[in-house]
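Escalation from tier 1.

The customer reports that the assembly of two entities below gives different structure tokens on two consecutive runs. Tier 1 could not reproduce it. I'm attaching the input and our single run for tier 2 to review.
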Amino acid sequence: MPTEQNLLDNYLSNIDILGEGMPVWFNARRSDAAAALNLHGLPTAKQERYLHSDIVRLLEGEWEQYFVARRHPAPKELLPEADANRIELINGRAVNNGLKISIEGAVYGSLRAATCSEKYGALVEKWLDSAADMSDTPTALTRMFVQDGAFIYLPEGIEEQSPILIDNFYHAENEAELCFSQTLVVAEKGARAEVIITHRSAGDGRIFAGITREAIIGEDADVHFTELYDLQQNCSIVNNNYVHQTKASHCATMSCKTGDGYVRAAYNSALTAPEAVSDVWALFLCGGEEHCDLNLAVRHLAPDCRSYSLVKGAAAGNAVGSFAGMVYVAQDAQRTDAQQQSRNLLLNDTARIFAQPQLEIYADDVKCSHGATVGQLDDEAIYYMRQRGLSEKQARRLQIEGFAYDVVQHCGCQHMCRHISELTAAKLEKM
Amino acid sequence: MLSVKNLHANVGGKEILRGINLEVRAGEVHAIMGPNGSGKSTLASVLAGNEKFEVTAGEVTFCGQNLLEMSIEERAREGLFLGFQYPVEIPGVTMSNFMKMAVNEQRKHRGLEPLTAGEFLKLMREKSAVVELSSKLTSRAVNEGFSGGEKKKNEIFQMAMLDPKLAILDETDSGLDIDALRIVATGVTKLHTPENATVVITHYQRLLDYIVPDYVHVLYKGQIIYSGDKSLALKLEAEGYDWLINDYQ
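Tier 1 run:
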């Protein structure tokens, strides 16, 4: 099992190859992250935010790590019909180690390329690691080993018409592989874009993917993320997202787990200037022995901001789903409007769902609400649908699809929306 | 079409139906009336196959088949429709998606090809006109946020879509204003043909001004204690049930 010490040893013995070709500042922060991991250790169940995700257990067994690019079979193109600006990553590495510019002027491609480029290096240096929290040790672990990832830069005022698609493909055969990647999205004043992030996997080997994503959303900028976890059962992902929002910015995130793999995803938003708006919709569908742990944290640090979140989970079999949501309202974040909802569906007696909504409010003029429910399918509705000729199975499925719809409808791209609906239907068939 | 013989049914160990006998032939309209708690809705639920109720004795044949052996959806696909007293809201499931599945399941059962998207839309448009149901409602979630009147219109719209052999309408008139009652009742009348049959459960004679019954039955304590023609409904409206109940006792 790679304990902290194993991981640190592996880091130290590969420090040269890890840092090869990267700027000094990039590698200096790598060693800061290693120090943070050394100091805090991997999270245990004693840490509230990892109460339902046993990272140490997830890392049990023998793992391989590769610090140079390797050949993998090319995956089938995702959403071929969509007119998208594509960034393809295999096991955390960009397939094309370069940067592209869209018609509208968005810059997108490999994080490594951006870091090393003359033009964007300073931008990456300024913003990378600025929003991420290194005391969260999976974030530090990713930073320690990261060699590549995705980079999106939306210069001031550009309105990107086609979605930018970050296609994360994970692949391992006959071995277990650890892989890490980091993504940076910088949206300058007034920029707008739709970003789709997908995670899919293939191969019979195990994968552990550690991912950190930071999004810096400038004044009046509006970025919409759609993230899909469509992983095989032998692929686990620990994904920490950090969104930093400034004045009157809007960031919407729709996240959907339809695959079988283990997902631990955290969506952290900091609303740092007035009138920033954050929307998060998330859906997880778990069957069999699956596990999904969603963690939301919205920090209202300035007055007149609004946040909304709706997390829906359905669990069947022996699956475990968990949701923890925190809304933090700082003392001077007056007139905050924060709403957080968690709605869950248990489809049998053995599945489990944990819901933990939390509010921490230090301002006195705020409107905050939170609620969590765990329920079952509505027998009356099933009877009603069967009376119209649907089979019990169809009626159950339709009801779960209806339950999921509140979240799925917030997908910004119609091709992606169809893709998610199909995956949702296929998942429900198996649950 | 429907033949009910000595039907007994329980819910939670309590006997609600205590020997119902009823014959419904094609082309007929039957009205079932009776005081609250007499078992009217239970009869409708038992015929639809609601699993909350346990049939303890009796026989029901529907178009020559043993109805009691059929699942809820088999009964529906064979052409038995229940208009719910309290239509259920199904969040996130659009009316059109729901109806498309229902219509195509029924077609599959009858060995027919599923409707194409175009054919289905045409059918929806045509049938929603029967009850003046706004096409906006058909794109919304099933019964969600529908007014009382819209929910009942929606029941009759679904009946029109599914074209059942036997429709059992459980207090379809409850909670309707005068205009909605007229629209709903006229809708039912338009759907009536010599090949199908309707059983309306109601408290009020008013509905029967539109849906003129061939037979009126009075249900009391789980039995049909009296049957007559449409004039019985008028007499009940004027005099109440006491004279019948006193006779029965």
